Structures are given as structure tokens and as C-alpha cells.
Amino acid sequence: MVSRRQLLRASAGFAAVGLTGLSGCSSPSPNYYRLGIVPGTVHTGGPGRIVVRSISIPGYLDRDGIVKGGGNYQIDIHDNDLWAEDFAGMLQDSMVQDLAQRLPNTTVTGPGSSITGTPDALVEINLQRFDTDASGMMIFIAQLAIKSGASLTTWATRTLNLSAPANGPRVAAVVAVMSHLWGEAADNAASLLVQSWAHHPHSSAD
């Protein structure tokens, strides 16, 4: 016959095993990433002040986890590798910094800046794809628009279709390639801003 003391000892042993199992299954701390600022060609002759007004992204990129990409119509998401902030907001902040480097004589801000007043030009980007394909290439597809800051008239548009090797499955390498391609998008935006301003030097008259 099993005594009460033996039952209590057995119960305590099971409880200890359960607690040990739970502690061993704890999730690892997440890794956080952000896009880097990639220097590009410096331009002169652009507008005095521009605002990166909006960056729209597709729904599958609007998440905390970094998209792995893939093939056969499937998208994989990193569960423990996360963006350090809202992805669309991070793209916008990075574009502001990238353009500021490329247009040193231009004041570049985002829509939430404390610098007020009507800008000379607006930058809008409609991102359609930004992930790796089945072959390991990072694919970037977006529509770029330059508009008058005063009248919102569209001055120029350009479709961007860029790609680069993702450099393997490591998340840090993937984010570095994404930063590089976003820098290429900034190169296109900077050159288009300078070209547009040459044809519309006084936005308030548009």
C-alpha cells in the first residue's frame, strides 16, 4: 500500500520535471533589424525643400517579421527576426536620409517633420514587391512619382524594377541587400527630382 508521504514525494517530483521542461522550451530573444543608409551619387540643382510624402507597401510586407520570400506562390516569414519599427515608416525615414545625402543643398523631410511650410516638391513611392525569389534574388518593384509641392501636379513618374543576389539565407545579409536596393531607389528619386526641377523651377506657379 502506498503511503500518503510517498504520494506527496511523487507529486513533488512530477512538478519539478514540469517546471524544468517549461524553462527549457522558452522562446529565444528576438533579433531586431533596420535598413542601413547607403551613400549614392551627389546631385546639385535640385529643389530647395522636398518632402517624402508617402511610402505605400503591399499587405504581405506590412508585418513585424522579416519576409523570407520563396517560390511556388508561398511566402515565409521569420518568426524571431523582426523589423525594429513599422516597415513603411522605416522605409520613409531611410529614404529621407538617403535623399539628404544625395541632395546636400536640399532640405529633405518626412510628413511629420516640425519644419513647416509648402515644399517645392513631393516624393511618393508605391512599393509592389520587396522579397527574394526561388533562385535567391532579391526583387524590388516600385512606382516612383515626383509632384509639385504647391499644386500636387505630377511632374514625373518612373517604374523601378531592380534586383540583386540576396547573399544567402542569413538575415543580416538579406537586410544589407535590401538597404542597397533602397539606396538605388533613392538614386533614381534624386536624379528625377533634379530633372523635374529643371523643368519646373518655381513650384508655386504650377
CATH superfamily: ABC-type transport auxiliary lipoprotein component
Over all CA atoms, what is the radius of gyration? 25 Å
Helical segment count: 3
* Low-confidence region ranges: 1-23
Total of domains = 1
What's the order of the H and E elements?
A: HEEEEHEEEEH
Helix-and-strand structural type? alpha/beta
Task: Return the CATH topology.
Answer: Rossmann fold
Please tell me the overall pLDDT: 84
Strand order of the largest sheet: 5-2-6-7-8
The major pleated sheet works out as: 5 strands, mixed
Kindly describe this structure.
The chain is of the alpha/beta class and 206 residues long. The protein has one domain: ABC-type transport auxiliary lipoprotein component (Rossmann fold, 3-Layer(aba) Sandwich). Helix content is 32%, strand content 31%. It contains three helices and eight strands; from the N terminus they run H-E-E-E-E-H-E-E-E-E-H. The strands form two sheets. A five-stranded mixed beta sheet has the order 5-2-6-7-8, with helices on one face. Strand 6 and strand 7 (137-148) form a beta hairpin. Helix 2 crosses helix 3. Residues 1-23 have low confidence and may be disordered.
Short description:
The protein has 206 residues and is α/β, with parallel strands linked by helices.
Q: Features of this protein?
A:
206 residues; alpha/beta; Rossmann fold; 3-stranded mixed β-sheet; elongated; disordered N terminus
Write the layout of secondary structure elements.
Blueprint (H helix, E strand, L loop, with lengths): L3 H21 L6 E3 L15 E8 L8 E5 L6 E8 L3 H16 L4 E3 L11 E12 L4 E12 L5 E12 L5 H29 L7
Parallel strand pairs: 1-4, 2-5, 2-6
Antiparallel strand pairs: 3-4, 6-7, 7-8
Helix pairs in contact: 2-3
